[in-house]
Write a structure and sequence with these properties.
With 182 residues, the chain is an alpha+beta fold. Helices cover 41% and strands 31% of the residues. It has helices at 2-18, 26-34, 37-53, 57-62, 66-71, 75-85, 153-160; strands at residues 90-104, 107-121, 125-136, 144-152, 177-181. A five-stranded mixed sheet has the order 1-2-3-4-5. A hairpin with a 3-residue loop joins β2 (107-121) and β3. The longest helix is centred in the first third of the chain and has 17 residues, at 2-18. Residues 17-34 have low confidence and may be disordered.
Length: 182
């Protein structure tokens, strides 16, 4: 009889503890599956490169958040222009992303990345910047890319070598969408 009571108590205890587990959102699953912030940022860059290599505008569009798709001016044309601008197939990329995380009571409420990469294809080298929101518990429609900007390496280096000494990305002042500069 004592064994039955003990087993019953263990089962009830396990059920109660199991009920406290909250389901994970998309961003939390990605964090758990992919690991480090660098790995998450690299995975986004890989997803962008694969879509471009395949000429798949729909796959690229799926990376954007619902709110960015609404805010951007003619995102389909912007993506089409990028597909025409992009030359070659990815050979490598290198870069990193700065991240910003807002937590509340130990839980990530919002997590964003600003990516800065060099992408080398068999025909050209590009500099890429992106804004990506991995988690937004209060506004899930903002999860995804909001901005993607491409510039040729030549244009980027020309700006670096000029009097200003840096390249001024277009996107901070332009809102959601895809931006290209040759």
């Amino acid at each position: 009889m004592k064994k039955i009571k003990l087993v019953l108590c263990c089962v009830i205890l396990c059920m109660n503890l199991g009920g406290c587990i909250k389901p994970m959102g998309r961003g939390e699953r990605l964090t758990k599956e992919l690991g480090s912030e660098q790995q998450i940022a690299d995975q986004m860059m890989e997803d962008i490169a694969v879509a471009l290599d395949n000429g798949d505008g729909d796959a690229l569009k799926e990376l954007f958040s619902a709110s960015a798709l609404e805010e951007a001016t003619d995102i389909d044309r912007q993506i089409s222009d990028l597909l025409q601008f992009y030359q070659g197939k990815k050979q490598s990329f290198e870069g990193d992303a700065s991240s910003s995380t807002h937590t509340k009571y130990g839980e990530d409420i919002e997590k964003s990345f600003s990516g800065d990469y060099a992408l080398v294809t068999n025909e050209k080298t590009y500099r890429i910047a992106y804004e990506y929101r991995l988690i937004d518990k209060e506004n899930p429609d903002k999860e995804g890319l909001s901005v993607l900007e491409f510039v040729t390496e030549e244009t980027y280096q020309s700006a670096i070598n000029s009097e200003e000494g840096y390249y001024q990305w277009q996107y901070p002042n332009s809102g959601a969408g895809v931006y290209i500069k040759e």
